[in-house]
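User: Sequence in, structure out. Go.
Assistant: Echoing your sequence, followed by the structure tokens.
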Amino acid sequence: MSDTNDVLGITDDGGVRFLTFNRPDALNAFNQTLWFALTDALASAANDDAIRCVLLTGTGRAFTAGQDLSEMSDPSVFDDQEPGYQRLMPVLEAFPKPLIAAVNGVAVGIGLTMLLHCDIVLVARSARLKVPFISLGVTTEASASLLLPQVVGWQRSAEILFTEPWIDADQAVRDGLALRAVDDDALLAEAEALARRIGAGPVEPITETKRLLLAGRAEAVKAARLRELAAFERLVGAMMAGGAAEAGPA
């Protein structure tokens, strides 16, 4: 199977589903269409015995720059639609097969936090990662409040969240956010070779092993996501109320 729609490239080959974020002019930022496309592609891969591994990467200069902020500023986008983030996260956090990320460039917001749900992350030497939640007036997402301290340690997690530094490829490896840094021109070939090695394996032992890896944290990850969502909605509500108060009565 090979398919490229406006926002997500999808290719199935050798037991691997290759998913490529394809909004390069927007640094692959997630709009509703991309959220939904990724959700559907992962959900169908989860139920397809021919798919044993999924590889995520991006087109152009970015892995993904996170949420498309132009959509966040337009509430009408979400009329009669579940926000795409809320649709994706239950699928991503419970994805039953190995998930590899090849971080080819800028990774901001969900571009970093989704890596906490990947089993193996390779990062291009030119890549830069960042979580600008507090500066945007919001808070963590994708269960990062639970998973980030588990991966990088409490104090480094606090530094990343509270001071929002850019994280280069070597630091991402030291932090445990990536397995290794790879020269830019070798990134996809190395990630593909790894994915194909996994994809050549038998599906039942692969999925059973992934199930066991997820079992110890599944409920905690879901609970963290729901706490974060409630906090996010409180903060956004407070910002909107503050803006209305400053504007005065209509």
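User: And one key feature?
Assistant: The radius of gyration is 18 Å.
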